[in-house]
Design a protein that fits this description.
Blueprint (H helix, E strand, L loop, with lengths): L2 H12 L11 H4 L2 E6 L4 E6 L12 H10 L6 E6 L12 H6 L4
Parallel strand pairs: 2-3
Antiparallel strand pairs: 1-2
Length: about 100
């Protein structure tokens, strides 16, 4: 499968992951900093959380990994949680800001 197509499917899978306290998916929230898809199907994701004390800190990275592993053509997934740069609301998409009434 072509890397561009696989990357689009990985991003779609990420849009199915939600922070349990915010009714917006983690991609639109701006929690996904980087997604690299290798021709081999290996995927590397750099992500953050809204705060290091986020109740989902233990579960969300595992959910991201599990959802991406379900994508046909993905052979391996590595999820790295980073805190630099720190997340702030400016990272949210316009759609997320509208959905949360922050426009």
């Amino acid at each position: 499968m072509e890397s561009v197509v696989l990357e689009a499917e990985v991003l779609e899978a990420l849009r199915g992951c939600y922070d349990p306290e915010i009714p917006v998916n983690i991609y639109e929230l701006g929690l996904i900093y980087d997604v690299k898809v290798e021709p081999s199907g290996a995927v590397a994701i750099r992500m953050t959380l809204t705060t290091p004390h986020c109740p989902a800190a233990q579960s969300l990275p595992g959910e991201v990994e599990a959802r991406v592993k379900e994508v046909r053509g993905v052979t391996d997934v590595k999820v790295e949680v980073v805190w630099d740069p720190p997340w702030d609301p400016s990272r949210m998409s316009e759609a997320a800001k509208l959905q949360l009434g922050m426009d």
